[in-house]
What does this fold into?
Amino acid sequence: SQQGEEDPQALSIQEGENATMNCSYKTSINNLQWYRQNSGRGLVHLILIRSNEREKHSGRLRVTLDTSKKSSSLLITASRAADTASYFCATDPRETSGSRLTFGEGTQLTVNP
Amino acid sequence: NAGVMQNPRHLVRRRGQEARLRCSPMKGHSHVYWYRQLPEEGLKFMVYLQKENIIDESGMPKERFSAEFPKEGPSILRIQQVVRGDSAAYFCASSPPGGRGNTIYFGEGSWLTVV
It folds into this structure.
């Protein structure tokens, strides 16, 4: 599998339900970031979680990081139709320069009204 | 504070022409990154630049692609003699100086279509 691989590839839920997306990676990281991308648009930064953090919250978003399992999850609670988008995790590997990110292929989330 | 500005948003080129994509980072940001996104795929790193320096170009195709970030003006990603396979969204991102671990902010992308 690739660095920053999301699971599932696609997720369809009803408005009000929770959505959980997972991300696995291979190498040691400095941090892991989650982004959202609406169709035909750029990426919107959601949350950055550092390698020494285990959980982070932002509004309806909750991100966890398990460095021993090299995995992260993004939970969106009380989903809304406007949450429909692709969600990407991106890792900032320790061995690369700058803040270069390695992206997964994304999870396409559809929230049905 | 304006975000990362990219232009053009959409660009159509015939095979063999040149494409120039421009990116102005956020104010105060001195690190610029270019990524490419093929349809239905994630973003793939191309190049990382600081002012007047290419720091990491390990993701750039060896031929036809070049990038610069001059002392004055925007960063430019240049694709010479475009082919159909170059059709993709090209995203620029920037981050502030001061080392690793900073949040990277993305522009809205430039969609290149080669006909």
